[in-house]
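Look at one record.

>
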Amino acid sequence: MLNTYTSYQLIAKDIPKAIDQVESQPVVKRETDYYLANIGNVKSIDDFVNNTRLFNYAMKAYGLQDMAYAKAFMVKALKEGVSDSDSFANKLSDKRYADFVKAFNFAAYGSTATLFPSAQQGAVDKYMRQTLEENAGETNQGVRLALYFQRKAPDINSWYDVLADTALSSVVRTALGLPDSIASADIDKQAQMFEQKLDIADFKDPDKLNTFLTRFTSLWEINNPTTSAVTSVSVLFAQPTTVGISTDLMMAMQKLKF
């Protein structure tokens, strides 16, 4: 079995080839063909969430498959849209929701929302990358984390972006040799600690990003030897605490009658 560093490098050096391999998988191809053939026929939010096959595909594309059951929650986010900074999706600290609503913008475009590229090929592209990362995680979660960080790096503008994402912050802590207990420290102090040790601008430089992820994958392998059981880090990809909306309210939203 290849170690974490080698596995990551083999995939990262030719992402398009890796995506092609994912796309050719029978199940992936079948679901993608169905999605592209039918998403344009969806004219309303109700049509969207009631077609479980389409909705689950779209949710997975944005890494939200674990919330696909919470249809009332997602309906509220879709109905309020993203044009208002106080909308439901915009108040959630997990920006995946706002990104999802922006891609399927029924609030702004009504019955034509699913005809935009973001709702069609754009969603497919995200689904392929998401599937690639999940497949990698089935044998080595460190590779999944590295691929995830690589994908998200161009959009990291501050250490608070990192700290708002449990997976990203886990990668940084591992690369710096910091214990997970640091995550319970004051968020401003964590940001200051990261800033003292790393230049966040390096994440936008492909060569420097590769150096950083080489360090991460090497340290991950030391802490989680490939020969041992796969370490589960699925919790790192779950949605973090919301800003302005309590966890209790989120749970209440999930139980709304649909």
